[in-house]
Amino acid sequence: MSSNPWPRVDHFMRAVHLYTGLFLVPWMAVYATSAFFLNHDQWLARWLSFSHLKWEDVRTLDLPAGSIPAGDPAEQARVVLQKLDLDGPHQIMGEPNDKELAIFRSCAAGDYRIYWHHDSSQAVVQRRQPDSPWRAIHSLHFGRKYDWRYPAATAWAISVDSVVVSTWFWIVSGIYIWARRPKRRFWGGVCLVSGGLLFGLLVALLCR
Predict the structure, then answer these.
(1) 87 pLDDT exceeds 90?
(2) pLDDT value at 1 more than 70
(3) Residue 62 within any structural domain of the chain
(4) Following DSSP, what letter does each residue of 24-77 receive, concatenated?
(5) Distances (CA, A) of 181 to 18, 118, 177, 184
(6) Predicted TM-score of the model (pTM)
(7) What would the mean pLDDT of 101-117 be, rounded to a whole number?
(8) Are 116 and 100 in contact (CB under 8 A)?
(9) What is the mean pLDDT of residues 131-158?
(10) What are phi and psi of 158, to 5 degrees?
(11) Could you give the residue ranges of the DSSP H alpha helices within the chain?
């Protein structure tokens, strides 16, 4: 039996490089497409007739008196969203006070801004308009932080970490596969070194 471990390492590197790439195709497509949109936002805005985003009131609801617990703003925000059927990843905007609680509810289909007024127990719901598939892709690009209260947000955060780990593995395995092929070592080395030099030059110029 051969004691040379390199064929097994080669097989492992190529297999993981291939199958993780195939599994993560949708995520990489989202990041590639949204990065293009972000880089060409003005051109796309003219081509697709985008209008400037603005907040519009979409609903006003009088919540039953005493239905929102006193005290912790975080718990108040969660209950307000539940009453509005908008429970999901969110954050409190600014510093809570005894007059108003402002909540930002992130959503790929269109973000919400909710203002709950303590005295009247009235909630005003605003939504960012206009909405479009391009805005949804932008939202997915920036992802969601870990929020264990919401399984979908947590699963998305885990998937983003998987993309990060896989990308670094693709970098390492790509260099490894190149280094294991002597016939391609010269031109591969030229690409690797020239890419590194160009990257370093651009970073130096952009950081001046």
Answers:
(1) yes
(2) no
(3) yes
(4) THHHHHHHHHHHHHHHTHHHHHHHTT----EEEEEEEEEPPTT-SPSS-HHHHH
(5) 17, 69, 7, 6
(6) 0.73
(7) 90
(8) yes
(9) 81
(10) -65, -40
(11) 6-23, 25-39, 41-47, 73-83, 133-142, 151-179, 185-206
Kindly compute the dihedral angle of the four CA atoms of residues 9, 15, 18, 24, in this order, to the nearest 10 degrees: -110
Whether residues 38 and 141 share a domain: the answer is yes
CB 165 within 8 A of CB 173: no
Contact 44, 33 (CB under 8 A): no
Contacts with 47 (C-beta within 8 Å, 6 or more apart), sequence order:
none
Residue 95 backbone zone (phi > 0: left; psi -120 to 50: alpha; other: beta):
beta
* Closest among 134, 176, 170, 142 to 24, alpha carbons compared: 170
Is the pLDDT reported for residue 96 higher than 80? yes
Q: Which tops the pLDDT comparison, 134 or 127?
A: 127
Residue with tokens 């972000």: 38
What domain count does the chain have?
2
Compute and round to an integer the Cα radius of gyration of the chain. Answer: 24
Q: Per residue in 161-186, pLDDT tens?
A: 999 999 999 999 989 888 888 887 88
Asked whether residue 1 is assigned to any structural domain, the reply reads: no
The position carrying tokens 């002597």 is 182
183 located within any domain: yes
> Beta strands 54-62 and 112-117: pairing type?
unpaired
Compute the mean pLDDT over every residue in the chain, rounded to the nearest whole number.
86
